[in-house]
Amino acid sequence: MAVNKQGLAKAVAFIAWADGKFEDSELAFVNTIFKKYEVSETEVPALVKEYIDGFLDADDTIDDSETQQEINLGVIDFGEVDSFEVLKDLADLAGADGVISLQEVYVLHMIAKANNRSPEEATLALLHAVNTNSSLKIEVE
Length: 141
Known about the structure:
This protein is an all-alpha fold. The chain has helices at 5-16, 24-36, 44-55, 83-94, 102-114, 119-132, and strands at 99-100, 137-138. It is built from 6 helices and 2 strands, in the order ααααβααβ.
């Protein structure tokens, strides 16, 4: 089964950047996700960078011209892979730095919606991440 590289890259970049920073631990996990879906390691930086650059303005700060409520991801197609499995991987990515922020929760729900998945499935993916990593913290503020 083939993954849609662009769809995966868009979702990965969006969840990785949800808290406004891209940690080394997240970068390592990004590579793990792409490897799982058999995307060449040499393709990953360009795929993800395209979307990360879209989140930044010329001063390398978050582009505040759109609020989170205004962001429209459009349709995110993961291809022929199990999209719930991708949501679980994205939830794990959100927690790769040891903390899942409220923004990351919100973004995962947006990604689920863009992939025609229910909010409940996004929540289940987050619960799975917490269940598999007992040291994971959830920020609620």
